[in-house]
DNA sequence: TCTTGCTCCTCTAGTTGCTAGAGAGATTAA
DNA sequence: TTAATCTCTCTAGCAACTAGAGGAGCAAGA
């Protein structure tokens, strides 16, 4: 049986994050020691590893919840898991496409910025005037990809 | 003079978002009508357009704040704006690289999932067992890119 | 003039996926 | 025993908004 700190080391998931996962029901409530400290066995460790890998692959927690409930019923068809992974793949591809367009536009801005003065700065100018940028940005609700 | 709704239409930024920008000081406090409604002139509209473009290019609000304060002093060197844009470009490139790796791994998972039963499902298996996936994921604090 | 229907106001709270900190108790090594 | 290092619960905070309540402003038609 591991305490939460050991589990954290073993899994690469931080202690508060483990507690958070328990709180939102991704992990079952842990057993407790006599002194009320959480204790984890091998099953919990595997489940946490599963969650970490899925997070690393960009799956949102809701999708992971679904995948976990699927993996609890190993006799069922793989189709649902496949669908979740496919959706994630499509999302990743869309983000790559979007970011690639952003990259091109940033590069264009920067190349034209010849190191002068703000008044002539392409960066400022392009941001201030839509006519000076090339890509068409659909006016979407959620605009962006922000650095993490 | 535009009311907030017209400004929203003109700029493509939602009404509550405009108020939010004012609250956090990205936009100056708007003039008010006799009935306490916000009124905007051309300057505010330009500033908001600037913000929207920058957001679309993925600049975080803090960087936009810096860019705006730069653009208020047009005699200064362009170097600071250039640095901000370069940092953003680097961030975008890093995210593309990361996402491209994720994409490859997701594709590998999916190709091997032959439409069987959960027990044999590659998706579940790979997520549950790190030995079955190829890329080395450094155990980083902030793990992921999550779909927006 | 009144009413209808839209906009606008402020305020609070929720989203996602955590992270940070306070103040107190548990456990372990010297 | 005592000190150091966990661990506990709780609250609050991060980005960048979004949603909703409850009330007021305003333009146009009957």
Automatic annotation (TrEMBL), chains A, B:
Domain of life: Bacteria
Family matches, as Gene3D superfamilies: 1.10.1660.10
Every HTH merR-type domain range: 1-70
Keywords, in A-Z order: DNA-binding, Repressor, Transcription, Transcription regulation
Pfam families listed in its UniProt record: MerR, MerR-DNA-bind
Protein name, as recorded: Helix-turn-helix domain-containing protein
Species annotation: Rhodobacter calidifons
């Amino acid at each position: 049986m591991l305490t939460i700190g050991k589990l954290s080391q073993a899994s690469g998931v931080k202690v508060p994050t483990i507690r958070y996962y328990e709180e939102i029901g991704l992990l079952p409530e842990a057993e407790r020691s006599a002194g009320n400290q959480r204790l984890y066995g091998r099953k919990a460790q595997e489940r946490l590893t599963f969650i970490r890998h899925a997070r690393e692959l960009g799956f949102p927690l809701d999708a992971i919840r679904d995948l976990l409930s699927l993996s609890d019923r190993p006799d069922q068809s793989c189709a649902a898991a496949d669908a979740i992974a496919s959706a994630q793949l499509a999302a990743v591809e869309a983000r790559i496409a979007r970011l690639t367009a952003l990259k091109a536009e940033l590069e264009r801005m920067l190349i034209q910025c010849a190191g002068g003065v703000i008044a002539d700065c392409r960066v400022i100018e392009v941001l201030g005037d839509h006519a000076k940028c090339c890509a068409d940005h659909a006016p979407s609700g959620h605009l962006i990809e922000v650095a993490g």
